[in-house]
Amino acid sequence: MGNRLNGMIANTVFQVTSEPPIIAVSINKQNLTYEFICESKVFIVSILSKETPMEFIGRFGFKSGRELDKFKDLNYKLGITGAPIVLDNSVGYLEAEVISHTDVGTHTLFIGKVVSAEILKDAEPMTYYYYRNVKMGKVPITAPTYIKGGNKAMDRYVCTVCGYVYDPEVGDLDSGIKPGTPFDELPDNWTCPVCGADKGAFEKEG
Ligand code: FE
């Protein structure tokens, strides 16, 4: 707080009313962002594009601002409330002032009046469905011919920390791993693109 900035990935933000525009977001009380919103009484929702790299999702979704400055080396600007607007990978944003909040046990539901908003890029926003099913590797974006059985090199491996699936058919382009690279041939210093766990944290799928 003070001048410190933080952000996190929330899986759902929803509109409450349109006149005036009011939105709501549910935040886990253990998150640093929870403390920041409580104190500042403002928040900004930056809407990520479908093309957002997994490394970026990992930084905001699987790491805590208590351990790293998530805005380091990132393009951002401050909104009229002083909260940060993520410019990298964002299609647009909604800036809100908290007008109410509801305690829902592990989480708090913050309700905010939208005070500014802007479209930054003409691109498709990421949905939670797309993240779970496409980004996590459950459905390859392009579906190349899949040779079933007999080809152990093409076994998929699951990160036991975050659930990310390494699919050799897809590779990990964000880390320079070409499609067709078996898990065993990943470099030793390769880490989970989502949560940063090392290769030892992976188990063969199934
Ligand atoms: Fe992981």
Describe the protein's architecture and organization.
With 206 residues, this protein is mainly beta. The protein is 12% helix and 31% strand. The chain contains three helices and ten strands, in the order E-E-H-E-H-E-E-E-E-H-E-E-E. It has helices at residues 32-40, 54-61, 128-135, and strands spanning 13-18, 21-28, 42-48, 76-78, 84-86, 90-104, 107-119, 157-159, 165-166, 202-204. The strands form three sheets. A five-stranded antiparallel beta sheet has the order 1-2-7-6-3, covered by helices on one side. A hairpin with a 2-residue loop joins strand 6 (90-104) and strand 7. 23% of the residues are buried. The mean pLDDT is 90.
Helix content: 10-25%
The portion of residues forming beta strands comes to: 25-35%
Read across the widest sheet, the strand sequence of neighbours is: 1-2-7-6-3
Radius of gyration: 19 Å
Bound molecules: fe (iii) ion
| Overall mean confidence score, pLDDT | 90
Let me know the largest β-sheet. 5 strands, antiparallel
Global outline: elongated
> Which consecutive residue ranges, at least 5 long each, have pLDDT under 50?
none
User: What structural category do the secondary elements indicate?
Assistant: mainly beta
- How many β strands by DSSP? 10
Helix and strand pattern: EEHEHEEEEHEEE
User: What's the end-to-end separation, in Å?
Assistant: 44 Å
Put simply, the count of helices is 3
